[in-house]
Design goal:
With 354 residues, the protein is an alpha/beta fold. It has helices at 10-16, 52-57, 126-138, 157-167, 183-189, 206-214, 263-269, 271-277, 294-301, 306-352; strands at residues 25-33, 36-41, 44-50, 69-75, 80-86, 92-96, 104-109, 113-119, 142-148, 172-174, 195-199, 238-241, 247-250.
Length: 354
């Protein structure tokens, strides 16, 4: 397989230079699932596992994910490989891992854009779309909103206008897998060598769109439930080569999209509120009950919706809380390291005194 077809370029070749002398080869992760990997490279498709040094010397958020480039030792006859290193990521899309743990989960790496898929059924949620946009911007990846299943409504104008109003310049497209509407709009983004990841809740039609783009039925699909909620069909993230030369990472439905970092992404997503905040009487205004608050005045006057303001507050508070938890973990880690160092020094002096 020609590496150029899966996104290889001069920048990656330079990043790979330290691994040339070790007789390693570059490959790209197509599937990462349960500690096992499917790779694409010069030797075609390979099945791989992590080398022990990678597993033990790095944290789980640094392990390969779909879209990563890796340096591998290939066993050609067996069609297998051992991943010896992960090349630096240009971009990544991360979230806080579901649950209480303050841990980063990287969903996809080295992507050029994020398709945010939202179905025009009863599960339609502008607030969820805002969250996706904020995370994409925070991760340095261009978001594109796809309003799927447009065949379910007679007129999509109202839905499109609502999302365009909150997306602040982010492209918004209506698409329908049933009649092919909007498919050409998607294909224009998927230029040769470019990689996109498609994200959204279960049942919004992500895998169906991927099947249309590939012209196959490679991705499993299911009917959604009567309440409009989706059933999980895709169970792993997978990088798929498209006929036009682009690549798409299909993903399982996301139930919980916790912010990771996010402060800059929230600011960019809510630029309108940032502009209002700049006109507040006090520079440290928290837009709660302070006199001269331009944000609250806009809410009261109707130029800023209560729903959008609540969404901004919720995401901002989430980011602040996460930052405080990270600081707390950093202090605990530093304290533990200092304690270990003190113990080593004490043992060293004890040995010298013998």
């Amino acid at each position: 397989m020609n590496l150029d077809k899966i996104g290889w370029d001069a920048q990656l070749a330079e990043a790979f230079l330290p691994h040339h002398n070790a007789n390693l080869k570059p490959a790209r992760v197509s599937i990462a699932h349960g500690g096992y990997y499917t790779l694409l490279g010069e030797d075609g498709e390979l099945q791989a596992t992590l080398a022990g040094k990678v597993r033990h010397k790095s944290s789980s958020e640094d392990w390969p994910v779909a879209g990563d480039w890796v340096a591998v030792a290939v066993r050609v006859e067996e069609r297998t490989a051992a991943i010896q290193a992960v090349l630096p990521r240009r971009t990544k899309f991360s979230r806080k891992m579901a649950g209480k743990a303050v841990t980063e989960q990287v969903l996809a790496a080295n992507v050029d854009l994020v398709f945010v898929a939202a179905s025009l059924n009863q599960d339609f949620s502008p607030r969820r779309i805002e969250r996706y946009i904020a995370l994409a911007l925070e991760n340095g990846v261009a978001p594109v909103v796809l309003l799927t299943k447009s065949d379910l409504v007679e007129d999509t104008t109202e839905f499109t206008a609502e999302i365009e109003a909150i997306s602040r310049g982010v492209p918004v497209h209506t698409v329908s897998a049933l009649d092919g509407i909007g498919l050409e709009d998607l294909q224009r983004y998927l230029e040769p060598g470019k990689t996109a990841v498609i994200l959204g809740s279960s049942g919004v039609g992500k895998s169906t769109l991927v099947n249309l783009l590939t012209g196959t039925d490679s991705q499993s699909v299911q009917e959604i439930r009567e309440d409009g909620k989706g059933r999980h069909t895709t169970t792993r993230r997978e990088l798929i080569l498209l006929p036009g030369g682009g690549m798409m990472i299909d993903t399982p439905g996301i139930r919980e999209l916790g912010m990771w970092e996010g402060a800059e992404g929230v600011r960019e997503t809510f630029e309108d509120i940032q502009d209002l905040a700049a006109r507040c009487k006090f520079g440290n205004c928290r837009h709660e009950s302070e006199p001269g608050c331009a944000v609250l005045a806009a809410v009261e006057g109707g130029s800023l919706s209560v729903e959008r303001f609540d969404s901004y507050c919720k995401l901002s508070e989430e980011v602040e809380f996460l930052a405080s938890k990270k600081d707390e973990l950093a202090r605990q880690t530093r304290k533990k390291s200092e304690k270990s160092l003190h113990k080593l020094q004490k043992n060293f002096h004890k040995l010298r005194g013998r």
